[in-house]
Amino acid sequence: MNAIRTTLATAWRIAVPYFNAEDKWMGRGLLAAVIVIELAVVGLTVLFNRWNNVFYNALQERNYDVFTSQIIYFCVLATIWIALKVYQLYLNQWLQIRWRKWMTERYLGGWLHDANHYQMQLTGDAADNPDQRIAEDTQLFIDRTLALGIGLLNAVVTLASFVVILWGLSNEAPLHLFGHSVPIPGYLVWGALIYAVLGTALTHWIGSPLVDLNFRQQRYEADFRFNLVRARENAEQIALLRGEPAERGKLSERFGHVAENFMRIMRRNKRLTAFTASYSQASVIFPYILVAPAYFAQKVQLGGMMQTVSAFSSVQDSLSFFISAYRTLAEWQSVMQRLEGFERAIDTAVARRDNSGVVRMPSSSNAIELKDLSLTLPAGAPLMSADGFTLGGNERTLIVGPSGAGKSTLFRAIAGIWPFGSGSIAIPANATLMMLPQRPYFPVGELRAAIVYPAEADTFSSEQVAEALREVGLPALAERLDQHGHWNRTLSLGEQQRLGIARALLHAPQYLFLDEATASLDEPSEAALYKLLDRKLPGTTIVSIGHRSTLEAFHRRDAMLSRSGDRFTLQDRVKPAEPVAGLAGS
């Protein structure tokens, strides 16, 4: 019972927000329509049950007039039933797509809000493969919730409708054993109940492992699909390294998990199907066995017998709802566990950010100020520290240090996506910051949109974008602004870095952070781009991370992360007193 209450509470927590959201009236209206139609279908089932009595009695009595009228009556009922089922399906699917759209937007909003997706990845939260949870699990949850909810409603209403009928038929066709009538009130109801309870208990005993097996299967499938996509995205590197055998081995290993777990599901389903199929076939003949003695004792007519069998089957099917829906229930429960884990991971990321020891605040000056800043790794190990360090306006600063000292992590903390540590980072109010990593990101689509990302494609004119491309040394791409492509895959890393500089020229941020953003270019090209930034963005504060000594010529100030105990400390390095050529006015 605790497991049932927990499952229902989880389903309620995931499902109910939609029906209280901005689309609530449409959602509630569609759900109400689906429920009303389901109740009408149950009402028609009751009428079909009564029709059985009259129709089969007419056959037994060879009453052609009644037979003809009942055929017409059946056609009327069947037409109404078909119309109801068609519109129930249509309205159900309409509700599904609206509900799914709302849940997808909600999960996308939570996942992509304030770098939650990045922090979830850093800490290895249990929300593996968020793409699957958003794209697939939401659809499965909605579909299974509606199917099980409507099915359960049908079972309850059908049971309530037919128990009364079956109880009355039990009195009309009393139980006969060895030629004697045995007066057991409602014996047909008790027979259906005992039959269903035994079947449900055995089904749960056989099928309960399917919940965990389905959960693992979804995870293995998603992992395999993710690594296939990863191999496609890194096709060039794999080909250059001749890494195809290694990739094939890893992919085969991951698919081995898929196949092995699927075999477990197959074996469990074989046992479950063997029982449920036997149970289903036995349920066809079981009511005839109970009623046949009364029929042959001429206590009930053929119509009464057929009505009794139909009513018994309806009651038995209602009581056996969990047997027929067990596989769906197992899949539904595993999907809920995945969605609950995803929501919990998002909440954890939000709480981690809100309770972060690294505080970002407005600066009282025109500079970024680091005070008592101490950054750690996600596990808590100390990484780097900075105290009293400022990045002033219109300043060119180069940060150097050994690999792993925390240079890129410092940039992440300034950007507000690294919550691990303590101290404060003061940033001028309304200041615009742009981070250019070594491998910039370009969304798949038009080249124009990829360059101006994250702004809208029409934020800058075609002439502005083309001019930026020519400035950074990519005049050939200026003619391809409307071309669609996967630019991170089709362009070399050097070309991508030039596009990153073009993006910075267009956006003209107040603070530009270059994390080895020109490392793939030759030194003359790198020098030309730094001079371009100096000329085009004279009011921008530029902070660079790099390992080339040639970068020093383009920065007035050097800072270094050097080892100090268990961490690295950021401090200024002394520069030569003579002026640096090529940076007048910077």
Automatic annotation (TrEMBL):
Residues 368-583 form the ABC transporter domain. Gene3D superfamilies: ABC transporter type 1, transmembrane domain (1.20.1560.10), P-loop containing nucleotide triphosphate hydrolases (3.40.50.300). It is found in: Cell membrane. The keyword Membrane applies. GO terms for cellular component: plasma membrane. The chain crosses the membrane at residues 30-51, 71-91, 146-167, 187-207, 272-296. Residues 32-331 form the ABC transmembrane type-1 domain. It is a multi-pass membrane protein. Keywords: ATP-binding, Membrane, Nucleotide-binding, Transmembrane, Transmembrane helix, Transport. The keyword Transport applies. Involved in beta-(1-->2)glucan export. Transmembrane domains (TMD) form a pore in the inner membrane and the ATP-binding domain (NBD) is responsible for energy generation. This is ABC transporter ATP-binding protein/permease. It comes from Rhodopseudomonas palustris. The lineage of its organism: Bacteria, Pseudomonadati, Pseudomonadota, Alphaproteobacteria, Hyphomicrobiales.
